[in-house]
Specification:
single chain, 212 residues, seven-stranded mixed sheet, 8 helices, 26% strand
Length: 212
C-alpha cells in the first residue's frame, strides 16, 4: 500500500502531507540532476526551451538565467497542480516579465504550437507517462527540426525504486523510453554515463528529425 501511495505522489504530487514530503524530497534529490540537465541541454541565450514535469521549479530557475537575449523564452509543463503552483511562486518574477510561461497540463496534450521549441529537458519524468509513445509523439510535434532533448536520471536509484514496485509497469527502463523516441521520429538516440560531483548519472539524448 505504501508503495502505491508513494508512486502516485512521485508522479503527481498533491497538496497533502505525503505530497509535501515528496516535494521536499524532489528539491534535495533532484537538485544535482536538474543542474546537470540544464548544463547538458546546451541552451543558447535566444532559445525557446521546454522543461517537462518541472516539479518545484529548480531546473526552470537555472535555465531562465541562461536565456539572456530578448528572444529567449522558457516554458514549463507539469501535470501536478501543486507543483505548478509551487514553481509559479518560485519563478514569479520571470513569469511576470514574460520570460517564463508555465502550463498545468498533460505532457501528451500540451497547449503549444508545432515546431516551437529549440531545446527540451526533463528529469525523473518519463516513467510516469501512461503511454511512452503518445508522450514522445507530442514532444516531437512541438520541437523544431534539429531540436535536442536531454533526459537525465540516476539509473541505479530508479532501478532500486522500481524493484519496490513504486514505479508503474516497465516504463522506467531506458530501453522502453528510447524505443518510443525512435518510433516517433527522434534520431541520434543514445544514453551516456555522466560524472557530476562524484555521482554517476545517465543522460539520454535525442534529436527531433522532421521532413520538409
Amino acid at each position: 500500500m505504501w508503495a502505491e501511495i508513494l508512486g502516485k505522489q512521485l508522479g503527481h504530487p498533491t497538496r497533502t502531507v505525503a505530497g509535501w514530503l515528496v516535494s521536499r524530497y524532489l528539491k534535495v534529490y533532484n537538485h544535482i540532476i536538474e543542474e546537470s540537465a540544464v548544463q547538458l541541454c546546451g541552451i543558447q541565450p535566444g532559445d525557446t526551451v521546454l522543461e517537462l514535469g518541472h516539479g518545484p521549479g529548480l531546473g526552470l530557475q537555472s535555465a531562465a538565467k541562461l536565456l539572456t537575449e530578448p528572444t529567449g523564452r522558457l516554458i514549463g509543463v507539469d501535470y501536478s497542480a501543486y507543483m505548478h503552483q509551487t514553481a509559479s511562486e518560485r519563478l514569479k518574477e520571470f513569469v511576470a516579465s514574460g520570460k517564463v510561461t508555465l502550463h498545468h497540463c498533460d505532457i501528451a496534450a500540451m497547449p503549444l504550437a508545432d515546431s516551437l521549441v529549440d531545446r527540451v529537458f526533463h528529469c525523473n519524468c518519463y516513467y510516469f507517462w501512461p503511454d511512452l509513445r503518445k508522450g514522445a509523439t507530442e514532444i516531437h510535434r512541438v520541437m523544431k527540426p534539429g531540436g535536442v532533448m536531454v533526459t537525465v536520471l540516476r539509473l541505479s536509484s530508479v532501478a532500486a525504486i522500481a524493484a519496490k514496485r513504486v514505479l508503474p509497469a516497465e516504463n522506467w527502463r531506458p530501453e522502453a523510453y528510447m524505443t518510443a523516441l525512435r518510433d516517433t521520429g527522434f534520431t541520434d538516440v543514445r544514453m551516456e554515463d555522466i560524472q557530476h560531483k562524484r555521482i554517476t548519472i545517465q543522460a539520454i539524448y535525442a534529436t527531433a528529425s522532421k521532413s520538409d
